[in-house]
Amino acid sequence: TEGIFLISLFLILLGPILLFRFDLLVILLTILGLYLWDKNQKIFSLIILALAVITKVYPIIFLPYLLFQNFKKYNFLSSIKLFFVYTAALLSFVFLYTFIFNISLSDTLVSYNFHSHKSVSTESVWASVIYLLYSISGNALPGFESAYGINAILRTDIYPSIKFYNYFWILPLSLCYLIYFLKRKSWERIDFIFLSFLLLVFLIFSKVVSNQYLTWFLFMIPLIDIKMLLKKRWILSLFVLCISIIMHTYIFPLNYSEWLAFLKMESQDFFLFWTALISNFLLIAVAINMTPDAYKDN
User: Fold this and answer.
1) Which of 26, 122, 151, 196 is deepest in the core (most CB within 10 A)?
2) First to last CA, the chain
């Protein structure tokens, strides 16, 4: 009941944009895959998660956790076998996709590489940091471009390079994993708090973030034990999250034309500017607040 309430609340705050995207599908597949894993249906779980990765790549960040948990509970060979199951399922879905839609394998690979050509999106946390640094230094905001399906910072104004933002997220996620694997003692059940925290860190360090991407993280929260969510720390986090969602929705889609006009220096709406920045910095605050529970060994 509590999970249904939270999901309903998040849907109301986010608005109808989810109805026009594939995000609900990949969320459903990801949650189903994790549920099956928790019920010890590991082969079916990895097949479902492989299908989720074909839809949106982000669920792949959970694979190291699942394989390491299996290694801790059983043995290394068992995890290797599961990794091959996952790889075989992923490749099978890729080949099936190319066959059904009559697309060459090379074109399929190009489509998956499409994301790497994008610049830093204007709604990302990275963009907020860049805009803040430009503002503090007294310089005009960096240039703006609409390319590869997103509105982003002009690539020639990106420092040090787009490649940096393509791959930097691997470093904080690897660090999160390393600390967790060294501290964790109990491996009986899936730690949904850590997986939620990991996904939020991924979003914070991703170069492309939009309003609907936040649902990847938000829909993980109902999987956390309600006793944990009723603690003061989590009530505070949920409140801050709701404020952040409202502010994100205020930017996109409610005032997106005005936001783009500001970035193009066609208007001076600094209220939108600070709304965008604060909404992203609140996500960082939530991640910091989650950290103690993410690394607590229950």
Assistant:
1) 122
2) 24
